[in-house]
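Field log, afternoon session.

UNIT: design team B
ACTIVITY: writing a sequence onto a fixed backbone
BACKBONE:
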C-alpha cells in the first residue's frame, strides 16, 4: 500500500483555501497511486487551544458546507485523513475525518485533548484500505500507550498520527525530538507502522512549528522524515499485505 504524509503550512479560518490545497494534493496523490494520505491535526480550520475560537470553527459531520468541501477535495480514489474541530450537539471534539470518493466514511476523536473545551473521544475505530487496516491517534494520544494498543488489538497494521506542534518557541524546541521518539516507541510497542503529518511555519502570535512529519517502521526505524521548516510530502510503499505483528507490553510510556 502506498501511503503519504503531507507537511503543510498552517492556515487559520481559511477553510476554502485549505480545501483548495487539499484538492490539489489529493489529485496529485491519486495520480501517484497513493492509497492513503494523512494531513495534520486540525488542519481544515486551524488549530487553537482557546475554547471559544475552537468552538467558533467547529463543524458537524452532517454540516452541508463540510460535506460539500469533502466532495470537492476528496473526489478521487485516495483515502484522506484530515484533522478538524468537530461539533457533536453541544460537545466539541478535536477529530480527524476519513474521507474517500467524495464523502466522509468515518471519524476519530482525540482521546486526550489538550485543547480547552474539547471532550475526550472514547472510540477507537479501525478502517480497511486494500489488504491493510489502519487507525488514528491524534498528537498527544501517543503519550498513552493504551490508545495505540487498542488499535493494534483490533487488527490495525498502520497508525496515523495527525499532529500540530505549533507551540511557543521554547516548547517547540522542547517537544521536537521527543515527538519523533514517541512515534518510534509507538511503533515498537504495537508492532505497527506509524506515520505522522505536522504543520510547519508560524502565526501572528509568534508560535511556530519545525514540522515533525515522519514514517516509522514496526522496529522503530524512521524510514522517511520531512525537511524541517519546509512544506514536504513523504511517500512510502508498505508491503502489499499487512504482516503479522505482536505487542511489546514492556515498552516505556512517554512522560505527560
Amino acid at each position: 500500500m502506498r501511503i503519504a504524509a503531507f507537511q503543510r503550512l498552517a492556515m487559520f479560518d481559511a477553510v476554502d483555501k485549505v480545501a483548495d490545497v487539499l484538492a490539489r494534493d489529493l489529485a496529485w496523490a491519486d495520480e501517484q497511486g497513493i492509497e492513503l494520505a494523512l494531513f495534520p491535526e486540525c488542519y481544515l480550520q486551524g488549530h487553537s487551544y482557546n475554547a471559544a475560537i475552537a468552538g467558533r470553527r467547529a463543524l458537524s459531520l452532517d454540516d452541508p458546507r463540510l460535506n460539500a468541501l469533502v466532495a470537492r477535495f476528496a473526489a478521487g480514489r485516495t483515502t484522506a485523513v484530515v484533522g478538524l474541530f468537530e461539533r457533536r450537539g453541544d460537545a466539541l471534539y478535536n477529530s480527524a475525518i476519513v474521507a474517500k470518493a467524495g464523502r466522509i466514511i468515518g471519524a476519530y476523536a482525540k482521546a486526550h485533548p489538550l485543547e480547552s473545551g474539547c471532550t475526550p473521544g472514547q472510540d477507537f475505530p479501525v478502517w480497511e484500505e486494500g489488504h491493510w487496516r489502519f487507525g488514528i491517534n491524534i498528537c498527544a494520544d501517543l503519550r498513552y500507550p493504551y490508545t495505540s494498543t487498542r488499535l493494534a488489538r483490533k487488527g490495525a497494521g498502520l497508525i496515523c498520527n495527525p499532529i500540530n506542534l505549533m507551540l511557543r518557541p521554547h516548547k517547540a524546541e522542547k517537544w521536537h525530538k521527543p515527538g519523533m521518539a514517541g512515534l518510534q516507541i509507538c511503533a515498537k510497542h504495537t508492532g505497527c507502522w506509524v506515520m505522522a503529518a505536522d504543520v510547519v511555519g508560524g502565526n501572528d502570535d509568534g508560535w511556530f512549528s519545525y514540522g515533525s512529519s515522519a514514517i516509522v517502521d514496526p522496529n522503530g526505524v524512521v524510514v522517511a522524515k520531512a525537511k524541517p521548516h519546509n512544506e514536504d510530502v513523504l511517500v512510502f510503499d508498505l508491503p502489499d499485505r499487512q504482516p503479522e505483528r505482536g505487542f511489546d507490553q514492556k515498552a516505556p510510556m512517554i512522560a505527560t
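LOG NOTE: The chain has one domain: 2-237.
NEXT ACTIVITY: expression trials, pending approval
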